[in-house]
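Entry 14. Structure prediction run on the chain below.
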Amino acid sequence: MRVMVGATFLVHGYQKVFQMGVDNFAPMLAQLGVPLPHVAAYLAAYAELLGGLALVLGLGVRVATLFVAFTMFVAVTKVHHGAFLAPKGMEYPLNLLVANLALFLTGAGRLSVDEWLASRATDPSAGKAAPRPCADAAAAA
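Output returned:
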């Protein structure tokens, strides 16, 4: 799930940054009443691009999910709030929002850079992996 959600954001961020252009995205946000639309456009576009890449790699997943989940919160409340079903409804961005919240709670998973880095941080005296409070708390929940 992490890789697919990440790929979705990576592609959408790429579109906003390199195809549409962030400066062309900002007027849409201004029409929706988003404060500081140029700043918001850059933050949203790069949150999707870099957050998507982070999710695909499994690097800094809990931080990345917060940024992309916030972009979906704005999409649900400002853009797709009139209906539930696609194409103009909140169904799809709401699912992406919930998927990111799930990834925040569960972490990156075994096949991730986060997990690889955690496995490398060993306690030399015991030869065991060092405790990871966030992952251990999520596993206990």
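Residues 37-57 form the longest helix (21 residues).
Filed with the rest of this week's runs.
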